[in-house]
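Field: sequence (string)
Field: structure_tokens (string)

Example rows 1 and 2, in order.
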Amino acid sequence: MASASVFMFGVAPLPTKISVATKKCPPSLGSLKGATKSFGLKTNFDFRVSAMATTYKIKLVGPDGAETEFDAPSDAYILDSAESAGVELPCSCRAGACASCAGKMTSGAVDQSDGAFLEKEQMDQGYLLTCIAYPTSDCVIHTHKESDLY
């Protein structure tokens, strides 16, 4: 008996040929840049890359004069390193867009190119935002300086 072409109740027969649309992937993506190009993605490659982070000594001086020291890797924000060491500091946005975590550096150097809140003059005077500052040397920082900036 030939297969029935009309079904009242039941499942229709499956097609004999199935076609699938695929995108051919390169055998090796090689790099993030190559991978994003292969898949037609647009991206910004402004991120920090380091083979091994250097560790610096950070000394924080609180408003009451109490000093705290901890090690901070060059690829981590000072605020994050302080919190990892058990030090509580004021913070709010964690994006360098406010002054809650402001400090004043009396020695050392930092990279705070991720921030946009402080004016060049304020940074030249030693002010920094711990939430977006990477240490680039050993530092001494006086904390709780938000009110100094207004």
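Row 2 begins here:
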Amino acid sequence: MAGLFETRATSMVSSSMKERDTWGSLHRDVLEKIFYTLMTSIPQAHQMEVRCTIRKVNKHWCDTFNANVSTIMIHNRRVIATMAALSHVPARFPNLKSLHLECSLRFMKSATTRESESWSKKLARDIHHIVSCSEHLQELNLGGTDVIRDNASRFIASLSTNTSITKLNMGFTRLRGSAAAAIGATIKNNRSLKQLILFGNDMCVRSLKPIADGLMGNDSITQLMLDVNNLGSKGACRIAAVLASNQTLEVLDLSKNMVESIGAAALGHALAHNDTLKRLELGRNVIDDEGGCSLASGLCSNVSLRTLNLNRNLLGCKTMLCFGSCLEVNEGLVELDLGGNLIDDQHGLLVINGLKKNSTLQTLRLADNLLGVRSSMALREALMVNWVLHNLDLGENCVGSVGAALLMDGLKKNTTLRKINLEGNNVGCDMKFELKMYQTSRTELDIHL
């Protein structure tokens, strides 16, 4: 019910804004009246989420909503800049659990230096007050802001002693120098933070150092998102050192970071001695066979990792051979993504052969490669003896009608597979018809063609 009211209010305000932009006849005051009329018409019991998306909010906006509001989302910087009532949030909304102040990067680039500094100081002061006084605040999203760039000490003081916030999003916040040091100090002192999101900051290795040092002494953070930061192999090596000593981190995202084989080798060595990490994202890097083999070697003695994503790297035949051997002995991996690595038909069967002796892998993604009939034959044999695989992604390969026929033969003797993707494989119409007819006899099986 609350979602219905919220959607109605948001869509009507958005459509009104489009009319104003088109005809230039709708004044801001009229927009505000529409917004407040809609929100005041919603029963107070259903006002559990406030999503402010219009460009200007009256300073008395807090009085519009009741004290039961648990989530406030503001996605436009001009809204924040005109919010005189932001500092009143803790007193007005004692049950607030989630505060999103994700700002428009487009506006940030167009703002003057004086305007940006003034806005940041005011917001830092208000954030300090909110974090210090909101006893139930669990999630703080400051994505796209530069609130800690010139206010590091205030930021540290407010978060270091906080015991309620479990999720902090600082994506696209231009972490440099004192800002990165502030995050590091916060991590080191805070014991309630569980999820830290730092994607899209384009951090250099120097900026990563205080954050890595903070993680060394942290025993609460379980999820760390560092994707799209251009950390390279040096940054990956620093994070690998963290994995060697950290005993709480469960999810690590290093995708899109230009990590090469040296960094992957360090991570592989860390995996061999780590027993807490459950998910590792390394997609869209530049890891070649040397790094891939190191990761596979580390997995041979690792029992905790459940998901490994190596999508769109530079992996070749040696890596496929290593992962094939790894799957034969690994007892923890549940999902493996090797898509987008230009694996040809001859080398694809090397990793597929590992499925014959594997008893844990449930999802295997080999999409966007060059797998053909030989790989399909190996998969047919694997499906006949493997009883744990649930999801097989072969989209955008070269399986063809012959390969599809081999796979269907394997499926007839397999009762555990639930989903197989064969889209973009040049399967003929007759073979597609046979697969669809076979699918009707197995309602639990989903075949994508």
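free_text_note (row 2): The longest strand covers residues 49-52.
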